[in-house]
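Researcher: Structure for this, please.
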Amino acid sequence: MNDLVSIIMPSYNTAKFISQSIESVLSQSYTNWELIIVDDCSSDNTEEIVSSFDDERIKFFKNEKNSGAAFSRNRALREASGKYVAFLDSDDLWSENKLEKQISFMELNDFSFSYTNYERIDEDNNSLNIVCSGPNIITKKKMYRYCYPGCLTVIYKRENLEELQIKDIKKNNDYAMWLIICKKYNCYLLNENLASYRVRVKSISHDKFRKKIKSHYDLFRVCEEFNPLKAICFAFRNMWFGLFKKIKYEKELK
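Model: Predicted structure, token format:
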């Protein structure tokens, strides 16, 4: 179990958090990885902080102009050369055995697409006492219902997906990737809490309901090329299953 893992990390004005995210990668018990950071023209000192890490496994790229997370993820994916691709946003964290456990889980079961549970934390690393999970197996049908995997937990095999690129949408670009991959592989849950998702007050995850509907509509209309009526139906259905997920798969820590 020594295959290269390419870790995709888009960044934009996360100087306050990115060093912690990088440290959580450096602390991994699984050491054969490359961390591909694509910065989207941050106006803070993100580049300076990344440059302070002296590790040849960390590869830093900077967009010529501010282009959005989808563009940054696409660029990072083009730079990836690992057998596996993992994702970690520049304000989130991994447990130190995350890669080791998940790669082992995939190798032992011959899985090509997997995710894990994750915990929510605040901007000061305090636990919000909520663990998020999902179905043990996410089929294509279930993935279209809702985006169950947290982006920071997903790993997939690049085999047959070397050319993976997504349409340039502002939000839900991680979900757009899962919809492509689920057409080839089911996604399997490693039922352990191995990551921490940072809830930020001003993040795009806290959009109003109308904006959320618009972002889901764009996902299905632009990325999946559904007709307008089908796209809006899938968008509303997606919001409904989002409520279902909160009830069934979001639990308080005991």
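Researcher: Any notable elements?
Model: The first strand starts at residue 5 and ends at 11. The chain is about 35% helix and 25% strand.
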